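Board notes (copied after class):
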Amino acid sequence: MCVPISLAGRRALVTGAGTEGIGRAVARLLSRAGARVAVHHRDEGDAAAALSAETGGPALREDLSEAGAAAGLVHRAAEALGGLDIVVGNAALLLRRPVADTTDADFSGVMAVNLAANFALAREASGLMGQGGRIVFTSSVNQWMPNPGLVAYGTAKAAIGGLTRQLALELAPRGITVNAVAPGTIETDFNRAARDADPSWRGRKLALIPAGRTGTPDDVAGAILFLCSDLAAYVTGTALAVDGGLSLMGTAP
């Protein structure tokens, strides 16, 4: 029996939705489930405006590396939507660089977007949410699986796991759930440079994935839709791997 998921009447903010990737897929799926969705972008104005026409909410530009930007974004979204029930913290900065070449500024910049901005989103949003509020972060299998060259990114994603659990514990008495999804190898613009630079990229990845295929943004969006729905009302403080079994292998992706 098919049980449709309805988010009718819910108001959502999805960060990092300006490019063709997970954020855009999430915004579209939440909208199709009935939510009005504000879409955040950094500088993809035309694409974000087109997406907002589909989702019924505004396109909001912010550079989440700047102090106060994430907090301001939450309040702009809530004002435009008349409140806020769902926040999906998906925006991220990926830096591929060996430890020896990673500067303090590099590390701080990745932490600002991937960790600090998500904390500020959750802090501000939780103050606006009532019973049934949903906060979901996009983490990565790199929170469990170290990968050479991703010291800043992997550390930030590991910290998202801790942030998820801390927030979930504190917000559970108010009926607000906090969860994360941990994607594996997903075909997005986010990792296009790595794919294009290495012809053997896809073959090497597939050799590590028990499901025998790389993931799509829609694979991740489906998991996030579940976590935002009433079906997940008793799920909080968890990180759901969406990786085709990659994290079972114990090998860096």
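Comment from the instructor: The chain has one domain: 11-248. Residues 11-248 form a domain with the Rossmann fold fold (CATH 3.40.50.720).
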